[in-house]
Amino acid sequence: MSPDGKEGRGLNFADIRDGGRSISTPSPSRGRRAVAFSLLLLFPLVLLPLLDGCASRREIRRFQIDHSEFRIRMQKLEKQLAENEARVDTLIAVLGGNVGEHFANQEEFLRGMRADQRAVSAEIEGLIQMLSARVSDSDVHVRRLVAKLDEVNRLVTEIVAGRDSLAISPTFDVNDPEKLYNQSYLDYTQGNNELARLGFRQYLELYPATSLADNALYWIGETFYAEGLKDSALAAFEQVETMYPESNKLAAAFLKRGILRAARGEREQARVLFQRIIDQFPAGEETPQATMRLGEVEELEKSPAEVDQE
């Protein structure tokens, strides 16, 4: 209790005055340490009369042990207080004087992150540009293909237009059937099969009853045959017999029909056609070839047993 009857506030007498002026008192932690050391010094003085009077050797020994333990505990407290003060100083430094440095470190970290972000963005931009370049190259290729396709379409259109113009081309003298026929035959001999075929068809349309009409039809079949269009050729050769049964090209048409039938595996029909040439045109120029072709067909028609016997 204080002299005025009030409890004291520990050892932190911050308001003690000396002659009307304030006396600075130590901080609470330092005050506690001073009091501890004072008590440590007072203990021997307080207990000295006891030691002089009736303390036995055992009591003295016990006192020494307690005193040592008390001193060790005080040293531990002093050490803990010092560590706490160091922590407080560190906290003050972080929150006070080193705040700028702390924020500077944060700013440097943020700058590093921004730099990394810019690098990643640049890499992504590079990839986008590379993909755009590839897309552009593909677009160029597509455009080239489209241009080539347009060129092909243009050429096809010109060819079709050329075909249509051939029918009225001044090369064909439609007013003279002989010239028209001769010009068409000349085109055939020169390998212009399509042009020759157009001329012969025009001849048939304009002059179907002349002596050369059956020949024109036969040569139409030959133009197809030369181009490998076997079905169209066979149809034209068959029309020779249908439209002009007395044609001087009948034997030649039979021969080509027989060859085409044999090539298709129709041996019986081919044999009949070759035989007709031999029977109807024994002295014709197609007869020797028809005879040879007939023998080939008959040889193929023999059974394997008959071939072995021969």
Description:
This protein has 310 residues and is mainly α. It has 3 domains: 17-95; 169-248, Serine Threonine Protein Phosphatase 5, Tetratricopeptide repeat; 249-310, Up-down Bundle (Methane Monooxygenase Hydroxylase, Chain G, domain 1), CATH 1.20.58. Helices cover 76% and strands 1% of the residues. It has 11 helices and 2 strands. The chain has helices at residues 28-53, 57-95, 99-166, 177-189, 193-206, 213-226, 230-243, 250-263, 267-280, 287-301, 304-309; strands at residues 17-18, 21-22. The chain has a two-stranded antiparallel sheet. Strand 1 (17-18) and strand 2 (21-22) form a beta hairpin. Helix 6 (213-226) packs antiparallel against helix 7 (230-243), helix 7 runs antiparallel to helix 8 and helix 9 (267-280) packs antiparallel against helix 10.
In short:
This protein is mainly α. It contains eleven helices and two strands; from the N terminus they run E-E-H-H-H-H-H-H-H-H-H-H-H.
Summarize model confidence as the mean pLDDT: 75
Strand percentage lies at under 5%
Going across the major beta sheet, what is the strand order? 1-2
Count of helical stretches: 11
What is the CATH superfamily classification of the largest domain?
Tetratricopeptide repeat domain
CATH hierarchy: architecture of the largest domain:
Alpha Horseshoe
